[in-house]
C-alpha cells in the first residue's frame, strides 16, 4: 500500500484523530505491515507490550486463557487498534490476540510515537485530553455497573 493509504487508515483511528497530516505521515512512515493467516497468534496475554497494532483488514479475536482454555472476550476488525497504551508506557498485554481470518496489520513503534509527541507538544496535549475523557467515561460506566456486583 502507498504511504497515503496508510495515512488515511491511521487518520480513522481514534487515538490519532487529532494528529495533523504531517504527524500522521511521520507515524505512517515508521509502521511495519504484517500479514497473519487465520488461526495465527498475534501476541500472548502477559507478553511485554512494546507496540500497538492497527487492523487494516480481517478480524481478530481477543482472548484470555483460563485453566488451559481460551475465552474470547472481544472481536475487532478493520480500523481498530490493539494495545494503544503500549505506545505511551511500558506494560503487559492484558489479552492475547489471534487472527480469526487472514489479517493485515500495521505495527506501530513506541519510540517513534513518543518522538512525535515530544516534537509536537500540541499533539501530546490533545492526546492527554482524549485519554482523560476516555478514562472518565470508563469510570462512569464502572460506577453504573458497581451495584450489580455488590
UniProtKB/TrEMBL annotation:
It comes from Nitratireductor arenosus. This is Cyclic nucleotide-binding domain-containing protein. The lineage of its organism: Bacteria, Pseudomonadati, Pseudomonadota, Alphaproteobacteria, Hyphomicrobiales. InterPro entries: cNMP-bd_dom (IPR000595), cNMP-bd_dom_sf (IPR018490), Env_Response_Regulators (IPR050397), RmlC-like_jellyroll (IPR014710). Gene3D superfamilies: Jelly Rolls. SUPFAM superfamilies: cAMP-binding domain-like. It comes from the Bacteria. GO terms for molecular function: DNA-binding transcription factor activity. Residues 15-134 form the Cyclic nucleotide-binding domain. GO terms for cellular component: cytosol. SMART domains: cNMP (SM00100).
